[in-house]
Write a sequence for this structure.
C-alpha cells in the first residue's frame, strides 16, 4: 500500500470563518490529528477550492482527503475526487447551525468543531479506497419466473430494452391466472366496459421475440450464485435439467385463489350454483360470448355477488387482508350478464366497495348505469338452494335474496414458496431441492425470499417496492401484494427496470439499492474468525454462505453494504475498506475528553445516515439547537454498530451514548430491512456491559428516528444531556 | 283494478325499474353510492322516517309500499343542500318530489300529510284560472284541518283582513270568481295534454 498522506481542507465559507477560529482548526488538524497537508479556503466548494484540492492530490501525493466544511450530504457533486479515500467534517450543519452565536457559547462551539476535525482526519487514516470486487461478472440475461401476466410483461419489457430473457413457466401454457379470465377491468378511458385481457397479444409478442427463451412445464430446481452470476437449474416435468447463467431474476409467481371449500357457510362445494370469481370467469371464457348457463344447464336470471368471501375477516383460517381486485372484478362479471341481457338481475353485496386505480370509480359508475345493483350488506350464509342471507347494513335488518348463481369473491393467496422461517435450510453439503420452493436458492438462509406479512414477499410498499431481501432478485405481481392485472403489469415493468439496474451494477461490482454505486464490500480476517455464524444468520440479505468448515463465504454481489455483519461480529474481524470497526472506533477515541470537573460532558451520537443523520441536518437548516457536548458520527445502518464502540466510548469517558436508527418491525423504514431491528436487539443486551462498568443504564439510549423527526432528533440529544446532568459525569475520564 | 295494483302487476318484483320508469329523475336512483352525505346534510333529517340514503336503499331492496306510503319525501323543503353536496350529483330534491308525486298519482300517499294537502290546495287553486287566488288559498288553508279550527283561525285573522281591505291591499270581491289569465281555456288544454303525455309514458314502461 502506498504511503498515507492526509490532506485536511478547512472551508471558511457559509459563515464558518466568522463563527469559528479556523486557524485553531488548522492547528488541531496539523498538531493533534497529524494531517500532512492542511489548508484553509474562503469558499472551498467553488472551482478554485476544488482545484486546490485536486492539485494537492495530483502533485503533493495526497491520497486521503478530509473536507472540513458542510455535511457529507451537501455539495457531493463538487467534492468528488477520483482515486482518494475521502471523508467530511460537518462544521456547518453539525456545528455552527446548531449552536447559538453568542459569546458564552463560543468556547464549547469551537471545541465541537475541533473534535470534528480530529475525528475526520483520524477516520481517513483508517480508510482505504475501495477497489471493487474482482469477482464482478456481467451477464445481461434476465430470468423471469412465472409466465402469467406479470411475468410476461416483465419479459417483454426487459427484452424491449435489449436484455435477453429466459422465461420459465410451471404449466404447459403461458397466461397464468389472467389467461383463464374472459375479460379484464378496463385500463383505458372511458373505463366503461370490460376489456380483452391482452394475454393473447402478450403471448404473441413473446413467441415473436427472439430475445425471449421460454421454458414451459419447467421449474427452478436450484438457484445459486449472486447478481451478475446466478446459475439456475431449470428442470422440466420429465426430469431433464438445463443450467443457465443469468444476471438477475424476476419472481412473478403470482397467486392461488383462496380455497373456497373452507367457506362451508357459503355452501361452496355443496351447492352447484355457488362458484368463485375465477370459476365464473372460466365459465365465461368457455362460453365465449354465448349466454352463461348454470352447471345444470339452466338459464341464469339472477346473480348475487358475495364480496369479501373469506377475506378481510379475522375468523380463523380466513384472510384478514383485502385482495384489492375483487370489487371491480365483480362489477366486470356483473357486466357479462347485463351486457348480454339487461333483464338479468345482478346484485353485488359488499361491506365496503373499493375501486382502486384511475378508472375504478368510473367503472363502478358504469356498472350502476347498466343497472347492476349494489347492496351494502354482510353475508352470513348461502344456503344450498342459492338463498343469500345477509344483513343490510343501511337498513339495519336481516334479509335474504334468492339467486340462480352465487359468486364468491375469494381472495389472493401468494405463491411465495416456502417460509424460510419455518423450513430451515439444509446443512452445507447436504443441499436438496424442495418441490414447494419457487427459487430453490442454495443460500445459507433458506430457499426462498423472506416473507413479511400474510405470506407475501417482503418489500417496502412506498420507498422501495420491488426490492426484496435477496439482492438481484425482484418480485412483482400478486406475490408481492394483492393486485389486479393493471397494477401487476405496472409492477412487472418496474421490476424489469430494477433487474436491469442490478445487472449493470453487478457487472461493475457496484452495490444495488440503497447504497447504489458503492464499491466497498466486507471482507474478514480468517485467522480471527471463530465460526460463530452470527454474520451468516444476521445478514438481512442472505449474502453470506458458509463453507464446509463453517467459515463465512461472502458473496459481494449479493451484499448491500449495510455492515450488519460488521456490527454482529463478536471478534471484530469483518470490515469494509472505507468503513470498519476502526474508522468509527478511532474517531470516537480521538476526541478531546475534558476532565470530570469541567462540567463538559461528552455524548456520542451514532446516527443512521439514511434517516437520522439527514433529520439532524434538516434540524440544522432550521437552526434548531442541540447540546454542544454531542459528537455525531453517521453510520451506514444502525445494524453496523458493533458493541465494542459503546464499550470503547464508555471506557474512554463519554457520559452518554445515543443511537438513532430507522423504524423496525413489520412497518419498517430501515433501508436494510433488519439492520435497525438487529441493533435494537443487541442494545437490549448492553445493560450487562454498563453494569459491569458500574455505570447507570440510562447512559445508553436507542431510538427509532424517522427522516421527518426534525424536531425530535435534536430533542433526543438534549434529553441525553439532561440525563447526564441528572446522573452525573462518567467516572471514566482520564 | 286501481292504478296502484296495475303498476304492481306490471313491475312485479322490481321496484327500482318501476321508479326509473315512472318517477321524475328516477333513473338516477341506481347511481347512489350510499355515502350518506344527503342524509347528513338534510336540515330536516331528524324529522324524516327514512332519510334519502335509506329511501334509495329501500327502492333497491324492493320495499315498494314502505317507500310510497312513507311521509319522508313529503318532508323535503327544497333547500337543495343534498343536491349541492351529492358526490354523485344526483338531483335528490327532484327525486324526492318525483317520488311524492308518483305516490300521489297512485293514490297511496299518506292522506293527512300536511305538505300533500297544501300542495293539492295550491295546485287546484292555481290550475283553475292560471293565477293563484290568494284570498281563496288563504281561507282554504284555514279550513285545511276541519271546520272548527278553520273558524277559530279565521276569527283570529279577521282584524288583519279588515285592515288589509281598508288600506286596499285586498279585495273581498276576489272571493267570488276573482281574476285569471287571458286564455284560461288554452291553459286547461295544455294541462290536459301534459297529463296525457304522462299517462302514455307510464303505460309505455
Amino acid at each position: 500500500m502506498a504511503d498515507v498522506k492526509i490532506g485536511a481542507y478547512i472551508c471558511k465559507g457559509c459563515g464558518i470563518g466568522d463563527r469559528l477560529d479556523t486557524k485553531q482548526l488548522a492547528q488541531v488538524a496539523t498538531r493533534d490529528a497529524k494531517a500532512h497537508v492542511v489548508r484553509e479556503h474562503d469558499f472551498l466548494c467553488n472551482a478554485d477550492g476544488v482545484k486546490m484540492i485536486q492539485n494537492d492530490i495530483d502533485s503533493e501525493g495526497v491520497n486521503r482527503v478530509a473536507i472540513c466544511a458542510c455535511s457529507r450530504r451537501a455539495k457531493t457533486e463538487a467534492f468528488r475526487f477520483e482515486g482518494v479515500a475521502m471523508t467530511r467534517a460537518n462544521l456547518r450543519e453539525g456545528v455552527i447551525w446548531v449552536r447559538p452565536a453568542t459569546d458564552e457559547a463560543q468556547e464549547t462551539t469551537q471545541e465541537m468543531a475541533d473534535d470534528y476535525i480530529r475525528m475526520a482526519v483520524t477516520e481517513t487514516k483508517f480508510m482505504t479506497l475501495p477497489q471493487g470486487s474482482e469477482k464482478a461478472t456481467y451477464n445481461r440475461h434476465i430470468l423471469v419466473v412465472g409466465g402469467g401476466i406479470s411475468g410476461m410483461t416483465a419479459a417483454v419489457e426487459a427484452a424491449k430494452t435489449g436484455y435477453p430473457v429466459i422465461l420459465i413457466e410451471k404449466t404447459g401454457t403461458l397466461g397464468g391466472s389472467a389467461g383463464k379470465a374472459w375479460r379484464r377491468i378496463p385500463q383505458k378511458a372511458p373505463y366503461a366496459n370490460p376489456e380483452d385481457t391482452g394475454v393473447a397479444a402478450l403471448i404473441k409478442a413473446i413467441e415473436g421475440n427472439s430475445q425471449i427463451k421460454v421454458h414451459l412445464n419447467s421449474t427452478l430446481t436450484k438457484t445459486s450464485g449472486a447478481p451478475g452470476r446466478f446459475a439456475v437449474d431449470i428442470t422440466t416435468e420429465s426430469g431433464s435439467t438445463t443450467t443457465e447463467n443469468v444476471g438477475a431474476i424476476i419472481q412473478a409467481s403470482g397467486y392461488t385463489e383462496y380455497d373456497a371449500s373452507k367457506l362451508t357457510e357459503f355452501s361452496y362445494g355443496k351447492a352447484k350454483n355457488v362458484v368463485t370469481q375465477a370459476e365464473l370467469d372460466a365459465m365465461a371464457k368457455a362460453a365465449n360470448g354465448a349466454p352463461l348457463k348454470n352447471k345444470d344447464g339452466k338459464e341464469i336470471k339472477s346473480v348475487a355477488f358475495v364480496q369479501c368471501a373469506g377475506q378481510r375477516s379475522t375468523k380463523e383460517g380466513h384472510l384478514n387482508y383485502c385482495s384489492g381486485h375483487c370489487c371491480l372484478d365483480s362489477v366486470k362479471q356483473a357486466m357479462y350478464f347485463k351486457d348480454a341481457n339487461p333483464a338479468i338481475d345482478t346484485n353485488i353485496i359488499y361491506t365496503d366497495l373499493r375501486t382502486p386505480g384511475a378508472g375504478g370509480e368510473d367503472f363502478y359508475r358504469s356498472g350502476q348505469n347498466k343497472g347492476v345493483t349494489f347492496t351494502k350488506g354482510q353475508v352470513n350464509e348461502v344456503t344450498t338452494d342459492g338463498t343469500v342471507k345477509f344483513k343490510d347494513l343501511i337498513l339495519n335488518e336481516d334479509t335474504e335474496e334468492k339467486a340462480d348463481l352465487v359468486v364468491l369473491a375469494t381472495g389472493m393467496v401468494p405463491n411465495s414458496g416456502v417460509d424460510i422461517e419455518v423450513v430451515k435450510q439444509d446443512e452445507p453439503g447436504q443441499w436438496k431441492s424442495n418441490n414447494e420452493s419457487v427459487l430453490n436458492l442454495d443460500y445459507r438462509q433458506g430457499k426462498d425470499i423472506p416473507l413479511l406479512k400474510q405470506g407475501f414477499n417482503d418489500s417496502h410498499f412506498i420507498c422501495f417496492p420491488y426490492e426484496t431481501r435477496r439482492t438481484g432478485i425482484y418480485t412483482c405481481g400478486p406475490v408481492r401484494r394483492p393486485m389486479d392485472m393493471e397494477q401487476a403489469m405496472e409492477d412487472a415493468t418496474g421490476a424489469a427496470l430494477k433487474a436491469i439496474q442490478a445487472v449493470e451494477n453487478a457487472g461493475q461490482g457496484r452495490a444495488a439499492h440503497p447504497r447504489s454505486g458503492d464499491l466497498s464490500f466486507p471482507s474478514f480476517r480468517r485467522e480471527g474468525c471463530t465460526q460463530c455464524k452470527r454474520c451468516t444468520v444476521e445478514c438481512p440479505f442472505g449474502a453470506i454462505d458458509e463453507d464446509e468448515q463453517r467459515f463465512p463465504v461472502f458473496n459481494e454481489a449479493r451484499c448491500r453494504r449495510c455492515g450488519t455483519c460488521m456490527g454482529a461480529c463478536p471478534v471484530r474481524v469483518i470490515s469494509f475498506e472505507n468503513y470498519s470497526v476502526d474508522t468509527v472506533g478511532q474517531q470516537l477515541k480521538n476526541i478531546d475528553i475534558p476532565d470530570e470537573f469541567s462540567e463538559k460532558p461528552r455524548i456520542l451520537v451514532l446516527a443512521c445516515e439514511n434517516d437520522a443523520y439527514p433529520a439532524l441536518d434538516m434540524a440544522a437548516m432550521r437552526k434548531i439547537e442541540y447540546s454542544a457536548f454531542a459528537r455525531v458520527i453517521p453510520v451506514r445502518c444502525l445494524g453496523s454498530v458493533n458493541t465494542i464502540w459503546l464499550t470503547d466510548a464508555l471506557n474512554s469517558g463519554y457520559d452518554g451514548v445515543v443511537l438513532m436508527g430507522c423504524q423496525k418491525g413489520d412497518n419498517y423504514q430501515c433501508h436494510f430491512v433488519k439492520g435497525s431491528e438487529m441493533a435494537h436487539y443487541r442494545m437490549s443486551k448492553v445493560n450487562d456491559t454498563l453494569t459491569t462498568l458500574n455505570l447507570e443504564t440510562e447512559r445508553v439510549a436507542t431510538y427509532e428516528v424517522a427522516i421527518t423527526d426534525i424536531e425530535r432528533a435534536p430533542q433526543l440529544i438534549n434529553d441525553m444531556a439532561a440525563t447526564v446532568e441528572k446522573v452525573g459525569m462518567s467516572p471514566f475520564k482520564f | 283494478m286501481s292504478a296502484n295494483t296495475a303498476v304492481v302487476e306490471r313491475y312485479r318484483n322490481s321496484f327500482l325499474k318501476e321508479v326509473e320508469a315512472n318517477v321524475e329523475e328516477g333513473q338516477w336512483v341506481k347511481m347512489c353510492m350510499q355515502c350518506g352525505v344527503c342524509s347528513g346534510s338534510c336540515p330536516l333529517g331528524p324529522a324524516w322516517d327514512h332519510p334519502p340514503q335509506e329511501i334509495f336503499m329501500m327502492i333497491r331492496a324492493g320495499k315498494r309500499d314502505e317507500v310510497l306510503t312513507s311521509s319522508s319525501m313529503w318532508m323535503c323543503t327544497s333547500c337543495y343542500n343534498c343536491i349541492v353536496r351529492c358526490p354523485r350529483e344526483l338531483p335528490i330534491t327532484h327525486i324526492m318530489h318525483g317520488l311524492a308525486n308518483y305516490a300521489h298519482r297512485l293514490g297511496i300517499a299518506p292522506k293527512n300529510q300536511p305538505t300533500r294537502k297544501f300542495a293539492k290546495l295550491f295546485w287546484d287553486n292555481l290550475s283553475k284560472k292560471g293565477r293563484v287566488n290568494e284570498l281563496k288559498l288563504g281561507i282554504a288553508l284555514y279550513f285545511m284541518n276541519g271546520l272548527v279550527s278553520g273558524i277559530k283561525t279565521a276569527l283570529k285573522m279577521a282584524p288583519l283582513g279588515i285592515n288589509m281591505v281598508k288600506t286596499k291591499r285586498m279585495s273581498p270581491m276576489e272571493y267570488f270568481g276573482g281574476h285569471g289569465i287571458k286564455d284560461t281555456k288554452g291553459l286547461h288544454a295544455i294541462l290536459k295534454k301534459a297529463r296525457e303525455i304522462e299517462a302514455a309514458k307510464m303505460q309505455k314502461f
